[in-house]
Amino acid sequence: MELPASAVTDTLQSDVLDRDMLDHDVLDRIGQTPLIRLRRVIDHLPDSVTVYAKAEHLNPGGSVKDRPALSMIRAGLASGALRPGKTLIDATSGNTGIAYAMIGAALGLPVTLVMPANASRERKLILQAYGAELILTDAMEGTDGAQRHVRALVAADPTRYFYPDQYNNDANWRAHFHGTGPEILDQTDGRITHFVAALGTSGTFTGVTRRLKAHDPAIRCISVQPASPLHGLEGMKHMETAIVPGIYDPDLPDATLRITTEDAHAMTRRLAREEGLLVGPSSGANVAAAVQVAEELEAGVVVTILCDTGMRYLSDDFWKAD
Amino acid sequence: MPATSTTSVTIHIPTPLRSFTGGSASVEVTGQTVGEALKDLVRRHPALEPHLYTEDGRLRSFVNIYVGDEDIRYLDRDATAITPGAELSIVPSIAGGR
Lengths: 322, 98
Hints:
The structure holds 2 protein chains of 2 kinds. By secondary structure, chain A is an alpha/beta fold. Chain A has 2 domains: 5-25 and 66-162, Rossmann fold, CATH 3.40.50; 31-63 and 179-320, Rossmann fold. Helix content of chain A is 40%, strand content 16%. In chain A, helix 4 links the parallel strand 3 and strand 4. Chain A is globular, with a radius of gyration of 20 Å. Chain B has helices at 34-44, 49-52; strands at residues 8-12, 26-30, 64-67, 70-71, 87-91. A 5-stranded mixed beta sheet of chain B has the order 2-1-5-3-4, with helices on one face. Chain B has a single domain (8-91), classed as Ubiquitin-like (UB roll). The A-B interface holds A 93-94, 115-116, 118-123, 139-145, 228-234, 238, 241-242, 261-262, 265, 280-281, 312-313, 315-318, 321 and B 12, 14-17, 19, 50-52, 54, 60-64, 73, 89-98.
């Protein structure tokens, strides 16, 4: 008996997806980012205290989100949840969407992204340049509204979509457990004493912290949240007023620091002007918090994350202040 | 229209701030400009004030206020005049956008 043509095509495409496509050179460039020692923004601190920033903005998609996006796509292929003919769909305020769109383009995988209508023009143009389809939801509902919309679309047509659901997918934090965390240990020769990272999906903080604690439970891991529920810190979540991600473990942080949007913006400007690092506001929040942690130390090695490139925020007003 | 008349307008409150308005998704206020309407909003719901205004009383730079579909940054900011029945929205920042 002959197989239906579609089954033959499926087998061929599946073979291609599994072997050749995941070998794409662009995907090989995800991870292994430099660890950059900050100098001028901590020149008030003694030499015994160092602060390093993991330059995740140098991933090929311009953000830390390349790691979980690739990890969730790999996990989807491995489990069979992602198969040829399916469309990847997710709610994303930007960077994860850009990572999906980039990886999807490299793999020949259709990508549909749902985001609030007030996502920036730059973001929408980047996503469209990679060939992704955009669905815009009510700006008043924020990213939570986009998440609800994706769930409704997937529930209505479950066979059509592969929904990685970055907020509830263990492959998200595992990207950092297996990638970012070991890289930080290698790059600091295991000398790291403090890790500081903002919470969005909480994937970066959760994965890196679990890896660091497995290496040495004495490493202090401090999460960063916006000081107010109404904030301008792209990708960060104010947990008390947001839909809490399923992968978030509230017992994991040793402490939580609250950073105002204004302080994050001020540090974002300083990183550009004093360190030559053009990064976004969540990176500014991370470094502002890392500096606060460092200021309390007599000696230590503090590591934080530069989440994304500042090129994505050039039309924002905050560069002009000061 | 005499300057003393009051203009009643609706301000839509985004989900993250509704805990400061007793859960209300919108609040009726009065004012002839966006600035006056927002001041009336924080008079009615004082817990909102630190989220919208700096300590020296300026609207926080990242707070997005729309009149209908127009961002007040491209109108007359705080001084933007509003007409009776206008719909104002406080819109959460997203993705480096407005």
